[in-house]
Amino acid sequence: MNIWQTTQQAVQLLFSGDSALWGIVGVSFSVSLLAIAIVLIPSLLIAFTLAYGKFPGRWLTLSFINTLQSVPTVVIGLLLYMLLSRSGPLGDWQMLFTQRAMVLGQILICLPILISMMHAAFQNSDRRAWETAISLGASYPRALMSLMWESRFPLLAAIVASFSRIITEVGCSMMVGGNILNSTRNIPTAIALESSKGAFAQGVALGMVLLILALGLNFILSISRGKAHLRTN
């Protein structure tokens, strides 16, 4: 089968409402969106504290977080597997090979990315926005909201980058999810499985979903920045 025929079959799968394919897409999005939602506010607060706070060990903490970004996802999956297996210290939780384990793994993957990129956003922001809000009597949450509004585009870019990373990772999801059909099989693990079997049509279709997602997210970012640039001119 040539590339053109495979692509045609992939497009047919996408538009035919194939339940198996869209079930896989649903697992990917539900797991990744839940992971990013859980970690978003803690990451924001930690990043702000590292950028504006002054305490011993601040730069050591930031260096450790930056180092965690380079840990391979399969290593994170292996560590979680050992923790969540029956013989592991968290075996009583019975989370292994479940979507909850996948969410936990993706939280560990995107947490350092979010903190690092949000920290950079706050570091490059105008500190006068925070100082002015505080001097005018605004509460700390309200002042933080003002600062977030000033840094909204790099913060949004951090969220997009983190979401893109976790929805496309395969190592951790394979280790702790088990690639179980109709349960923990997501887009990256399904692509790996179908490609290994020589059934490329579904893999190409799922790849198209990821490509459309990437184009859509980048389009939203570009439009937002473009409108902001027009308002400032």
From TrEMBL:
<keyword id="KW-0812">Transmembrane</keyword>
<feature type="transmembrane region" description="Helical">
    <location>
        <begin position="59"/>
        <end position="83"/>
    </location>
</feature>
<feature type="domain" description="ABC transmembrane type-1">
    <location>
        <begin position="25"/>
        <end position="221"/>
    </location>
</feature>
<keyword id="KW-1133">Transmembrane helix</keyword>
<keyword id="KW-0472">Membrane</keyword>
<feature type="transmembrane region" description="Helical">
    <location>
        <begin position="155"/>
        <end position="180"/>
    </location>
</feature>
<feature type="transmembrane region" description="Helical">
    <location>
        <begin position="103"/>
        <end position="122"/>
    </location>
</feature>
<dbReference type="InterPro" id="IPR000515">
    <property type="entry name" value="MetI-like"/>
</dbReference>
<protein>
    <submittedName>
        <fullName>ABC transporter permease</fullName>
    </submittedName>
</protein>
<keyword id="KW-0813">Transport</keyword>
<dbReference type="InterPro" id="IPR035906">
    <property type="entry name" value="MetI-like_sf"/>
</dbReference>
<comment type="similarity">
    <text>Belongs to the binding-protein-dependent transport system permease family.</text>
</comment>
<feature type="transmembrane region" description="Helical">
    <location>
        <begin position="200"/>
        <end position="221"/>
    </location>
</feature>
<dbReference type="Pfam" id="PF00528">
    <property type="entry name" value="BPD_transp_1"/>
</dbReference>
<feature type="transmembrane region" description="Helical">
    <location>
        <begin position="20"/>
        <end position="52"/>
    </location>
</feature>
<dbReference type="InterPro" id="IPR049783">
    <property type="entry name" value="ABC_perm_TupB-like"/>
</dbReference>
